[in-house]
């Protein structure tokens, strides 16, 4: 009986030692971190050789010091990626996520690794198109109609004084006389000076004198308006504040910080999936604006070779800070931050920024 108890004890001891050995092996294996990403050129790009881009390279530089084992998990949309980070489906994301007040309530962020701006892209308009557009506007047409009316009024007044004493030049009674008066008024206004007609009566000359001075003012104003169409048309469409966006149809990427910004100021807008689709939208809707991250806008304009058609305005709406994002209260933030800051001070990081800028 004692022999049986002895063997039972030895067997139990071996089982316990085997379990401890397995736990020790498992504990010594490095944890494999899951990093959520979404294709966002030029920060995250996917090819047959894997992933590349500024965010990918920044993480690989930082991980040389961390030495972590990791894998990428891709998401189709920005909304899906943000939800994955918020719910802890991934350990963190290295995508260029802008730090906002709303997002800070749901997740944590690392030290910013890229400073950007929210910018505006729009379809370019040629000066010729701007002039044609202005010439066909109701404002311009109504101004011409008013001018024709004034020319007719002064032609009629001169004809009243000249129709009897200067019948040879102003055509006497009826429509023919009014036509000659209109012709004289138009020639006088434009200062052509044919000399084929001239008032002979005192009343006619007073009307002519008044019309000459008025015509100088009218012609000067008209000339200035037409000339300004070549240079000022785009100034009328300038965006000097967020409130100016209300004058346009606006589109932005869904779930982006740009959309948060537009929602904050209650700017009506449509959504697109990413930067590439936003640029394509502008090509089909030349009167609209695309609001999104400046580096992504510039990249897509160059990648799609549409710099002759699309411009990214120099005036920006706000400054953005791109950071790694983490689930709320993640302990990884404190581990990554010092390494990321150290990496950003290196010469290798400076060269990386120069290449992407």
UniProtKB/TrEMBL annotation:
It is a multi-pass membrane protein. It holds the Pfam family Lig_chan. Residues 1-21 form the signal peptide. The chain crosses the membrane at residues 135-161, 206-230. PANTHER family: IONOTROPIC GLUTAMATE RECEPTOR (PTHR18966). Its main location: membrane. This is Transporter substrate-binding domain-containing protein. InterPro entries: Ionotropic_Glu_rcpt (IPR015683), Iontro_rcpt_C (IPR001320), Solute-binding_3/MltF_N (IPR001638). Residues 32-357 form the Solute-binding protein family 3/N-terminal domain. Keywords: Glycoprotein, Ion channel, Ion transport, Membrane, Receptor, Signal, Transmembrane, Transmembrane helix, Transport. It comes from Mesonia aestuariivivens. It is found in: Membrane.
């Amino acid at each position: 009986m004692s022999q049986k108890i002895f063997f039972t004890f030895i067997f139990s001891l071996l089982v316990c030692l085997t379990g401890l050995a397995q736990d020790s092996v498992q504990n010594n294996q490095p944890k494999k971190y899951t990093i959520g990403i979404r294709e966002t050129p030029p920060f995250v790009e996917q090819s047959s050789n894997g992933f590349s881009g500024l965010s990918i390279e920044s993480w690989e530089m930082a991980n040389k010091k961390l030495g972590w084992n990791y894998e990428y998990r891709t998401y189709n949309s920005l909304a899906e990626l943000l939800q994955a980070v918020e719910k802890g489906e991934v350990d963190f994301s290295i995508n260029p996520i802008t730090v906002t007040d709303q997002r800070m309530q749901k997740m944590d962020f690392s030290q910013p690794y890229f400073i950007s701006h929210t910018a505006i892209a729009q379809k370019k308009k040629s000066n010729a198109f701007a002039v044609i557009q202005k010439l066909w506007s109701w404002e311009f047409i109504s101004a011409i109609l008013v001018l024709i009316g004034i020319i007719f009024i002064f032609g009629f007044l001169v004809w009243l004084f000249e129709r009897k004493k200067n019948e040879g030049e102003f055509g006497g009674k009826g429509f023919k006389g009014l036509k000659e008066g209109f012709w004289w008024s138009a020639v006088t206004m434009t200062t052509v000076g044919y000399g084929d007609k001239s008032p002979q009566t005192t009343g006619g000359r007073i009307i002519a004198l008044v019309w000459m001075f008025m015509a100088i003012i009218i012609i000067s104003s008209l000339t200035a308006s037409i000339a300004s169409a070549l240079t000022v048309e785009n100034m009328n469409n300038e965006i000097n504040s967020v409130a100016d966006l209300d004058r346009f149809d606006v589109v932005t990427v869904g779930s982006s910080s740009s959309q948060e910004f537009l929602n904050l100021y209650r700017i009506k807008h449509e959504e697109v999936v990413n930067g590439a689709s936003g640029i394509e939208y502008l090509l089909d809707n030349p009167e609209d604006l695309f609001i999104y991250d400046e580096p992504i806008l510039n990249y897509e304009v160059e990648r799609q070779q549409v710099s002759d058609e699309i411009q990214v305005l120099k005036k920006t709406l706000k400054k953005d800070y791109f950071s790694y994002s983490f689930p709320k209260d993640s302990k990884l933030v404190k581990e990554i931050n010092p390494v990321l800051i150290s990496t950003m001070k290196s010469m290798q990081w400076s060269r990386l920024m120069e290449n992407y800028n």
